[in-house]
Write a structure and sequence with these properties.
alpha/beta; TIM Barrel; eight-stranded parallel beta sheet; 9 helices; 34% helix; globular
Length: 293
Amino acid sequence: MLVRTLTGKAPKIKLPRGAVDTQMHMYLPGYPSLPGGPGLPAGALPDPDQYRKLMQWLGIDRVIITQGNAHQRDNSNLVACLDIMGNVARGVGIIDGNTSDAEMVRLSEAGIVGARIMDLPGGAVDLSELETVDAKAAAHGWMLAVQFDGSNILDHEARLENLKSRWVFDHHGKFFSGVTPESDEIAAVKRLIDAGNCWFKFAGVYESSKTGGPDYADVAAVAREIANYAPERIVWGTNWPHNLAREQADYPDDAALTDTVLGWLPDDTARHLALIENPQTLFGLQEWSASTS
């Protein structure tokens, strides 16, 4: 059975107090996987107790819990996790055209601050509902987490440019066809960032890298290019519990992965932005103080 490592030597890059993990998933007993999505993660359920150990190990103080695809459009597990985690956690959930204003208020009161669009197999809400979800999110001050094959970004650029909400391009853009810093697709990312409401998330590098670990050179080159271009628009996430890992050999070393990915940012100032100020702006979080926890 897959066993997650939750303790060990801390990352060499020390995370500042108030650091935010903007991409992870959490699961509780009693919430089975639903039709249309993948199954639950391998091994013991990655629950709040496990994640708190990871927070202590890596130096994370705050977290954005993202609705897992296993639960599709049912936010019940996410709401329960937010209740357990308390004030250090906020959520990104699932809404659609049928989500009422009353439900939006209920979800907001539960700590949900964003909506997820995932236009890939297993996703609950895809790009066909982008404008509908954006309108509801904007009306309630939410952000959007948008994930699709970034190789197609030129086809979607005009729609993305018109989004009313703050939004983040998820998982290093997931350029499955491969790109370089000079590619037209990366120029499109820069244009979207320049539009004023787009951020770029460093998380789940192993899901789209063709060169592979431990350095993920292809994704690293693009990540460095975007981080140098707009350090004020980068956020970071662990992507814990690494749901694609079904065997022990596929499970990453979280401390080493943290060092690798945060090492793509140009300096300590950029890392501080990515870990504190940028997520505060994107997700509408309060400024960090020790009392926040």
